[in-house]
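Entry type: protein chain
Record version: 2
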Amino acid sequence: MLQKINETAAYLRSRMTTQPRVGIILGTGLGNLATRITDRMEIPYGEIPNFPISTVEGHSGKLIFGKLGDVDILAMQGRFHFYEGYEMKQVTFPVRVMKAIGIDTLFVSNASGGVNPDYEIGDLMIITDHINLFPEHPLRGKNYNELGPRFPEMSAAYDHKLIEQAKEIAAKNNIRVVEGVYVGTQGPTFETPAEYHYFRAIGGDAVGMSTVPEVIVARHAGMRVFGMSIITDLGVPGKIVEVSHEEVQEIGNRAQPLMTLIMTELIKKTN
């Protein structure tokens, strides 16, 4: 794994003209942020040594180097999911590469189902913590001390300062945000009513099929993390309806401008 990380990092460094310290995984809700990146240079995943290829509808597959405001960034347009059949080390490989080329702060977004009865469809949820229910852990197996400690500390997986700054940006722009715990599951099925009830009972506010593995690996590598979810459906008694991937995408698209504004302003503060 170390050899693959180094090979991929060396390839990217040979193409890079900037030295970004901010990485962004453009999940649901952040697709339009890519259009705000200036001085851009794009590399399709298929050209990058050792990179998997995204297979999910609505997820592009390329790395974008450029600027948001005055901040040099690297954006990952199209993430990899465990349910696609990838191993966890493949799902999280891009985060390892980000760290190897100098990224120290990671921003992530996703679509999720709300299980908190106070939530509404279209809400933006700032992730304050997560519960890992994936059947495979991204750090299982041999630990490489060069990448991080054997038993990484996770009491502040999501950076408290970034959370407070995001709340201030939202308030300043009259954007409703909620805060909550994200439950990460394997997928690819949407949840049953009984599962929604279970996720709420164990302390979850929203549930989704991504993010947690990437965040674990980012924290293992010592990176700061900020995450945000768009609540695209509700698993609350009396509000549960059939949902499709297309409907999730549509709701995500409607909420994009608000999430993009918060994330863009927050990223500018990292400079």
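Comment: Helices lie at 2-15, 88-91, 93-100, 160-172, 193-201, 212-220, 245-268.
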